[in-house]
Amino acid sequence: MKGALRATAVIVAFFSSVAGLALGTKLISDSEIQKRRVSMSTVFYANLPPTPVRTPDFTLSTDREGTPLAQGRDKTGHAWRIMLPPGIRGLWLAGNGLGRTYCFAGYTGGAGMAPDSWILAVSFDERARPSPFHILSYAAYDAKGIKDLLQFGAESLMLLQQTWLEKNWKSGARSGYYITSAYHQKGVFWYRASGSYGSISFPAFERWALLLPETTPELVSAPDLPNGSNTDYGNDPTSGTQTRIVGVDEDEIQTGPELSCNLEFINVIVLDSARGRDIEVGEIYPSNPGRLLPVIARHHAATTFTGLNRWSDAHGCTASVAWAHL
Question: What is the pLDDT of residue 19?
């Protein structure tokens, strides 16, 4: 693999220890990545161990249905759990003490130009409850950790996220832009950064015509793109959209009018109740509602959505995290 950010042109094969084959963009050089890469402790890499994995904050095991499950308790003794997708390829720890952040990573199943990896960063608030930050990206990771988790000077952790937007600006070839965003951590939440870090300004745009001989992505000024082209995955609920989930059936997730779009799927659900905090991670949509969405809908629970992406040419939208309370 070349560099930390990778762009998939054609998925030829899949190896269980690494998420996909990819071509590298050179937005940040290999030497710069090595210089700024955050040191991480490896909890496990490649395949989830068959026996429970214990960390200072939780135990990771598999439930009777085969779902990977991270479980712990907060400072008040309330239980919490994170239900994870089966395709986990690693777990690493960055920082220590109160600043600990765990990073899970795995394969999305994406092919062609779809992002091939997901990353879930989990930090703990003042009550020792987990707060999830989730992205889909052309991400790179290895036995040492997430290659795209960097440190720029005195800044906090910075996680790079890359996606592909197909615009077909070049006749006769699939063409578009790689869009690379940077997210910095402040407390337990992550925020999309803007401005220059080192020699790169974020978000960064690289133009490319796929599979043309001797061509590479070219860094360009921000093009004029429609709304919804670049999701803001920032996960601070205070800047999210508040509404209620009032129903779910095989066709739609029904919400209050505040959302003003048809919600197609959610990547992460956080449900707080008297028993504690439950988190479910995966592509949660009407015909695959998972465990938490029906509960939230049945109670018409107040819900805040972060990481909303509204399609520019339709009424559909998706959400990175839904924060619900019973």
Answer: 35
Q: Residues 295-320: what's their mean pLDDT? A: 90
- The verdict on 44 and 96 lying in the same domain is yes
Within a domain: 206: yes
Examine the pLDDT at 22 and tell me if it is beyond 60.
no
- Per-residue pLDDT reduced to its tens digit, 156-210: 789 999 988 888 766 667 788 899 999 999 999 999 998 877 778 899 999 888 7
What are residue 132's phi and psi, to 5 degrees?
A: -90, 140
- In degrees and rounded to multiples of 5, residue 216 shows phi and psi of -135, 160
Domain limit, last residue, from 186, 210, 229 = 229
Contacts of 110 (CB under 8 A, 6+ apart): 8, 11, 20, 116, 136
Residues 140 and 200 in one domain: yes
Hey, which of 29-33, 95-99, 224-228 has the most confident mean pLDDT?
29-33
CB atoms within 10 A of CB 15: 11
Co-location of 85 and 176 in the same domain: yes
- For the chain, the domain total comes to 2
CA angle, residues 69, 71, 72, in degrees to nearest 5: 170
Can you read off the two tokens belonging to residue 214? 């001797």
Q: Which two tokens stand for residue 132?
A: 């999830």
Q: Are residues 180 and 295 in the same domain?
A: no
Contacts of 1 (CB under 8 A, 6+ apart): 18, 22, 24, 140
- Count of all residues that appear for the chain in the document: 326
Whole-angstrom distance, CA of residue 256 vs CA of residue 259: 7
Tell me the helix, strand and coil percentages in the chain, rounded to 5.
5, 50, 45
